Amino acid sequence: ILHFAKTLVVRTPVSWVLFRKIIQMFAQQSNNVITFSEAKAIGVACKIKAEDVHKVLMFYHDLGVILYYSCIRDLQDKVILSPRWFVESLGKVLSLQGRETYQTREMW
User: What is the average pLDDT across 23-48?
Assistant: First the structure.
């Protein structure tokens, strides 16, 4: 088990950890979405090369810390700092609340 646990450990540069702390602070202040340019500025301030910010965003996206979809045209300039906020917001938009009175057959 110890060997398996060691394979789960990912060495993360200190600058990347600092980047994560800063974006967490933004999220706590209800800044749930920032632009890629803002993320790049934060990265550069954390001593991350501008061309590496994309890698950092993908790393934290893979961990579930943020949501960053560079392949989706309408979202490639957005970094969602709070995945929970995003899911809850979608739940409100796509909610079935108020439709309890409809017959199930009518909905399908």
Answer: 95
Structure tokens at 49: 């090369």
- Separation of alpha carbons 2 and 79, rounded Å: 35
Residue 101, φ and ψ in degrees, nearest 5: -80, -15
Whether 67 and 80 have beta carbons less than 8 Å apart is answered as yes
Average pLDDT, the chain: 87
Distance CA 51, CA 45 (A): 13
Output the pLDDT for position 98.
58
Residues 44-80 as b/e (b if ≥16 CB within 10 A, e otherwise) read eebebeeebbeebbebbbeeebbbbeeeeeeeeebbb
Q: Output the pLDDT for position 102.
A: 53
pLDDT score recorded for residue 107: 55
